[in-house]
Amino acid sequence: MQTERRGGVGSTLLLVRSALASPARHPRTAVVIGRLLGLGFLVCFGTGLFSHFVQDPLPGMAFPTRPVALYRITQGVHVVVGTALIPLLLAKLWTVYPLLFQWPPVKSLGGVLERAMIALLVAASLVELATGLANTYQWYPWPFRFRETHFALAWAIVGALAIHIAVKLPVIVRWWRRGRSVDAAGALLPVREGEGDLRPEPTASGVTGFLQRRLDGAPVPPPALSRRSVLAATGLATAAVVVTTAGETLPALAPLNVLAPRRLRYGPQGLPINRTAAEAKVQRSALDPAWRLTVRGPERSVDLSLADLRAMAQTDAGLPIACVEGWSTQAAWRGVPVRDLAALVGATGRELLVRSFARGAYSSTILQREFADDPLTLVALELNGEVLHVDHGYPARLISPARPGVLQTKWLRSLEVR
């Protein structure tokens, strides 16, 4: 018998694959889930690029300052969609993993390259989503730098995904729409050779007869799952993780925000905090009555006390604070426009270096011209009608429209022409 001549390994793999066979594991299922995965990864890639370059712009890059909630929208979408990709990816892997047990594993050099690319895509996707989820909880149990690794993996995923789609395009085209995948009675059409058939082999003779003998005559149990039940379960799981986590940026979902790490309006002055003054070790400097803000320009420098800043014309601005971890909330800020301070030292229209008393990452930031000149970019002194809490940056902090919270520097020390 031809199947028996395939050897012990091949027979064992066929036995495993037959045991895993189910109508739910069908190319149509893989395509339906896969097109959502592909769209989701592209959305995350685009919004992730925006977040990366806002923080580390290339020479000549400029960014819009309107709408003021731009970064809140893009990063909120990034984190929500990234979270939704987790159940989608798990469902896709469940659908196709019996193909790991095909025999022979590869039939050509092209097959070797295809499997290597799939391995890269799956590994990069799993690491990307797992570390991204950990980042939302500010948990970093790894030795590498998160943001640089996240950025590099995104490029690897998009490249591998493009190649995977190109290789599987004939299968995707055939099973893309329901109308092309069923016959007049509504049944799924047969799977063609090479299209990833995950169904049991014919029961009359051949491989399945051999496998059944290996199972001592025990019949292969009927499948317990249908294709529709798998898709419905995947949809429910995806909706559940979105609804229970998106409330940290969407007020309408805040009451259901049970799995997200933060709650809206939770924290001093109704605003969450990523890093307290104690953690930043700036309490002594921030609370020093002799504190001064140094504004240094090409013509001269000035040192301004808190009383000096409060004596200047104040601007009120309703701006969101939006962090890369995915949480955001709207707040009312009051302070001195940065462009007014820049005008004091002849630095109007110039790029500014903003320094903090805090040390370490993000202790300084570059305020590009478009942000420095925006009338809503403030050295904020008040938050939600009260003097800034020390954990929110007292005595003064930066707040600007359409920028990530990590660049909204707290505990200001100086503004300098770069």
- Radius of gyration, in Å, reads 28 Å
Give the strand content: 5-15%
Structural class: alpha+beta
Query: Using DSSP, what is the number of strands?
Result: 10
Keywords: Membrane, Transmembrane, Transmembrane helix
Domain Oxidoreductase molybdopterin-binding: 289-417
Protein name: Molybdopterin-dependent oxidoreductase
Transmembrane segments: 31-54, 75-97, 117-140, 152-176
Description:
The protein has helices spanning 7-20, 27-55, 70-96, 109-136, 146-167, 169-175, 207-214, 227-243, 277-280, 283-286, 306-311, 338-344, 369-372, and strands at residues 293-296, 301-304, 315-322, 328-337, 352-356, 364-367, 378-383, 386-387, 397-399, 412-417. 42% of the residues lie in helices and 12% in strands. It is α+β, with helices and mostly antiparallel strands and 418 residues long. It is built from 13 helices and ten strands. It is elongated, with a radius of gyration of 28 Å. The chain folds into two domains: 22-199 and 226-254, Fumarate Reductase Cytochrome B subunit, CATH 1.20.950; 277-417, Oxidoreductase, molybdopterin-binding domain (Sulfite Oxidase, Chain A, domain 2, Alpha-Beta Complex). The relative contact order is 0.13. A hairpin with a 7-residue loop joins strand 5 and strand 6 (364-367). A five-stranded mixed β-sheet has the order 2-1-10-5-6. Strands 3, 4, 7, 8 and 9 form a five-stranded antiparallel β-sheet that branches.
